[in-house]
Design goal:
Elements: H1 2-11, E1 15-16, E2 23-24, H2 36-39
Antiparallel strand pairs: 1-2
The structure holds zinc ion.
Length: 41
């Protein structure tokens, strides 16, 4: 079962910050399109 979860996340497209284009590692909540650096600005 754990492998299925891993495969699920591996198949997700990389999310990139809408402001700086940095890859967003955190997949927590999809409420933002910006990385934590830009969010705090
Ligand atoms: Zn950013």
């Amino acid at each position: 079962m754990l492998e299925n979860v891993v495969e699920f996340f591996k198949n997700l497209p990389d999310k990139h910050c809408a402001k700086c284009g940095e890859k967003i590692e955190e997949q927590s909540e999809c409420y933002s399109n910006t990385c934590h650096h830009c969010e705090s600005l």
